[in-house]
Q: What sequence folds into this?
């Protein structure tokens, strides 16, 4: 770096923070293992790369906090609320079709 005063200063290099990895074990049946190996061979990839790609959606972006939309709510079957409301809005004669 050259400053206006004409002195050259050496920019200090910061040490990189060491990346720590964690080990996760999972068990596969022999048939599942063979299927995984065959799929990876066909796609020219490795099982580790395939598994990491599949779980990337869940492992990236949630380090600090999880958005509210991913939390489990008390009303798990909220999709039925809409149908109950539409049935309640109809008169008894409208719901019956011959």
A:
């Amino acid at each position: 770096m050259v400053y206006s005063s004409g002195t050259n200063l050496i920019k200090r290099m910061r040490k990189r923070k060491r990346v720590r990895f964690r080990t996760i074990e999972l068990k596969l049946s022999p048939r599942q293992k063979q299927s995984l190996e065959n799929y990876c061979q066909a796609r020219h990839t490795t099982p580790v790369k395939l598994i990491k790609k599949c779980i990337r959606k869940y492992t990236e972006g949630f380090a600090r906090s999880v958005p509210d939309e991913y939390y489990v709510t008390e009303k798990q079957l909220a999709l039925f609320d809409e149908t109950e409301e539409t049935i309640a809005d109809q008169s008894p004669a409208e719901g019956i079709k011959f």
